[in-house]
Amino acid sequence: MGKLIFIGLGLADEKGITVRGLDAAKDCDALFMETYTSTLSAGSLERLERMIGKDIALADREKVEGGVDILDKSKTSTVVLLVPGDPMSATTHVDLRLRAHELGVDTEVIPGVSSLTAVPALLGLQIYKFGQTVTIPIPEPNFRPTSFYEKALENFEAGLHTLCLLDIKGDENRYMTASEGLGELASVENEMRKGLITEDRIVCVVARAGADDALAKAGHFRDMSGQDFGPQLHSIVIPGKLHFLEAQALVKLAGAPEDLIRD
Amino acid sequence: MGKLIFIGLGLADEKGITVRGLDAAKDCDALFMETYTSTLSAGSLERLERMIGKDIALADREKVEGGVDILDKSKTSTVVLLVPGDPMSATTHVDLRLRAHELGVDTEVIPGVSSLTAVPALLGLQIYKFGQTVTIPIPEPNFRPTSFYEKALENFEAGLHTLCLLDIKGDENRYMTASEGLGELASVENEMRKGLITEDRIVCVVARAGADDALAKAGHFRDMSGQDFGPQLHSIVIPGKLHFLEAQALVKLAGAPEDLIRD
Questions:
Q1: Which of A156, B117, B201, B258 is deepest in the core (most CB within 10 A)?
Q2: SS3 of B228-256
Q3: Which residues in chain B (180-219) have CB-CB distances under 8 A to chain A?
């Protein structure tokens, strides 16, 4: 009997995988890596192949959503699908798992480190004080949704922090920068005028969470927007009501202005 | 110059650590492991010591909150504090990081897998549809807070899922079971009578997230309460409005009643 194992690769590069994930990858018959819902830094795939000692076939959107190759192999052998971050955060992977299950294929999930917890951790913000997570989409000529702004506003008014993930179109090699994301927030603010984004609003950016050169920065919107935070992936956090220790962390560890502590 | 590195051990046992975390642990001068905000399964510490090739000193609440030993060593050498799960989810670690910073000690955070994302993943629930996370406290004779119920109710009324972490008192070796947690929810329901918990309410339990024998189960409250889900750690999820794929996952992968799909 075959098996399909979803393994989270965690963050940044080949070193984000857990020991449990690495062991399972070494033991399997065939490896695929999903490349469109997130990404690792350049060269990670090759280094991961060396670590595992096996070739990894790339799986783009078509290959995962179609699933034919992966599911066919899973019927008779142990197949691993490697997914950057947590292996189940995109619905497409849940769908693939359900289809495997329908075919009578055993499935297993080996969780990975997710930016959903790593980004708050790097900023010193308490994960329990976050409301619903949003994604800021890459704007299209005739498509500019505003629901991310509305949800972030709701969180903010309830005193909660908002993690804003930035849109990824891996198939097109497009990864939104924090600067673009802050620009989108400002655009929607201009339209909606609800006061979520002001020049004085404290916003946070985490770049390359989990990498050796990870960056966590906080400051007034006017100072943060337009900054270059280096290579992607980036995320934005809009803090709600800050606990004293959180304010201290943003000032001491992420360079926020000192008056955040006094306020 | 010294350095203090916070490394997340991830879930379940010694295999939950990332390769990046393991490499940093191998390279450091002294290792501590925090043992009261969460825990790994029996024997994990010894296996972790063998994997790293170094002794690990246990750090209880006093040792971490006092911090003297850890901070003293960090002034002149590279010290690692190993923390089950994500290394920054308890405020006490943020506090320790700030104190190290005050002493001029460099700090670094190597994120770990957290139950906050692994539990939804194992159930096939979308992390983006969760509201604020709550913790159900171990009740004390004269202390039975109800805020966890109120927050979960708020999430539920907004259509959002709630992850209920279960209280851990590692220093006393007490880890709330799902059955106890469901009992607490029912007790507070009896008091508040807001209708969050009914006999028919679908609730989910994840036991041993990240372990080889992880269990994900969903069902009516009346069937789930009183069940034995095996060894801890356990978590509870109260689903809000379910997407079709989420309902399917709960039925097919977690044993929820079939009518969840038809509803």
A1: B117
A2: CCCCCCEEEEECCCCCHHHHHHHHHHHCC
A3: 209-210
> Are B186 and B74 contained in the same domain?
no
Please check whether residues A92 and A125 belong to one and the same domain.
no
From the list B94, B101, B252, which residue is nearest A101 (CB)?
B252
> Do A113 and B118 lie within an 8 Å CB cutoff?
no
CATH code for the domain in which residue A91 is found = 3.40.1010.10
pLDDT tens digits, B77-110? 999 999 999 999 899 999 999 999 999 999 999 9
Smallest CA–CA distance, residue A203 to chain B, in Å, is 19
Which residues of A fall within a CB distance of 8 Å from B114? Answer: 113-114, 117, 127
CB of B3 within 8 Å of a chain A CB? The answer is no
pLDDT mean by block of 10 residues, chain A; 263 residues: 95 98 98 90 95 95 86 97 94 95 96 97 96 93 90 97 94 92 97 96 98 97 96 97 97 96 76
Q: Do residue A97 and residue B131 have CB atoms under 8 angstroms apart? A: no
Structural domain span for residue B89: 3-110
Asked whether residue B131 falls in the same domain as residue B222, the answer is yes
- The residues facing A204 across adjacent strands are A218, A237
DSSP conformation class of B161:
B
Share of chain B above pLDDT 90, in %: 87
A144 with A64, same domain: the answer is no
Write the pLDDT tens digit of every residue in B164-205.
999 998 888 899 999 999 999 999 999 999 999 999 999 999
Interface of A with B in 49-108 (CB under 8 A): 51, 86-89, 91, 94-95, 97-98, 101-102, 107
Q: Do A65 and A106 sit in the same domain of this protein?
A: yes
Asked whether B98 and A253 are in contact (CB, 8 A), the reply is yes
Domain count, chain A: 2
Q: Residue A161 phi/psi, 5° resolution?
A: -80, 155
Residue B150: C-alpha distances to residues B133, B135, B169 (Å): 12, 12, 23
Measure B253 CA to nearest chain A CA, in Å: 8
Q: Do A95 and A178 fall into the same domain? A: no
Looking at beta carbons, which residues of chain A come within 8 Å of B105?
A: none
Q: Are residues A63 and A94 in the same domain?
A: yes
Q: Enter the pTM of the model.
A: 0.96
ipTM of this complex prediction, to 2 decimal places: 0.96
